[in-house]
From TrEMBL:
It comes from the Bacteria. It comes from Pandoraea eparura. GO terms for biological process: proteolysis. PANTHER family: ALPHA-ASPARTYL DIPEPTIDASE, PROTEASE S51 ALPHA-ASPARTYL DIPEPTIDASE. This is dipeptidase E. It catalyses: Dipeptidase E catalyzes the hydrolysis of dipeptides Asp-|-Xaa. It does not act on peptides with N-terminal Glu, Asn or Gln, nor does it cleave isoaspartyl peptides. GO terms for molecular function: dipeptidase activity; serine-type peptidase activity. Its EC number is 3.4.13.21.
Length: 237
């Protein structure tokens, strides 16, 4: 059974790195893994993979999980094949997907997660769980071979969701951007998650975790709330 944690962000408000996520991480890992393989591919742009690993590792060790980054392995496919669980960090979603394809990991990750290997991802790491990365907020600073991603759930997710426009901002709001997306792709579905919120996927169902409700965007500007704590069928969105 699939075990996937899709976190909107690595931080909530003014809290520290992943400080809000203890219970969310335990939910997916506690009964399934003692060691996790970290995939830092969304980062390593303005800072190194070593620096990213050093930021993430203490949090997981504090929770009782040993963590090692995939960049220490000569054969990344073998590392994923042997992993008890995979943690995919945030950063730039286009860079992440490009590096996953270059390493030959997209199909392998899909296979292993579908077979039950736990997956934890935040921001870009949540975006790539979707059928495509077309609802990321990131700038396409590289061009992946395709925008098709892991396709582990049947709908799109928009992380870091914030409603409305900041004062003085004259560009589109997130609501307007998602309405444009659905106007072009009327058969697709989008769930937005605010910072601190996560979707916990177990098999064919998902539960909204965190303080805030998730939002299900539909055609014509209709938005339904998915209440925090609610479990719903993936196919129902």
């Amino acid at each position: 059974m699939k075990q996937i944690l899709m976190m909107s962000s690595s931080r909530k408000g003014s809290q520290g790195f992943l400080a809000h996520a203890d219970d969310q991480v335990h939910a997916v890992l506690r009964d399934h893994a003692k060691r996790v393989l970290f995939v830092p591919y969304a980062g390593g742009i303005t800072y190194s993979f070593d620096e990213y690993e050093a930021r993430v590792k203490p949090m997981f060790e504090r929770l009782g999980y040993a963590l090692e980054s995939i960049h220490h392995h000569k054969d990344p496919r073998a590392a994923v094949e042997q992993a008890q669980a995979v943690v995919v960090g945030g950063g730039n979603t286009f860079v992440l997907l490009d590096r996953l394809y270059n390493a030959g990991l997209v199909g392998l990750l899909r296979e292993r997660v579908n077979a039950g290997m736990p997956y934890v991802g935040w921001s870009a790491g949540a975006n790539v769980v979707c059928p495509t990365i077309r609802t990321t907020n990131d700038m396409p600073i590289v061009e992946p071979p395709t925008l098709k991603a892991l396709n582990l759930i049947p709908f799109q997710v928009n992380p870091h969701f914030i409603s409305g426009k900041p004062a003085g901002h004259n560009g589109e709001s997130r609501e307007e951007r998602l309405a444009e997306y659905l106007a072009i792709h009327p058969d697709e579905r989008v769930v937005a998650i605010r910072e601190g919120t996560a979707l916990y996927v177990q098999g064919d169902n998902a539960t909204v975790l965190g303080e805030f409700d998730a939002l299900h965007f539909k055609q014509g500007g209709v938005v339904d709330k998915l209440a925090t704590g609610r479990t719903f069928a993936l196919a129902s969105i």
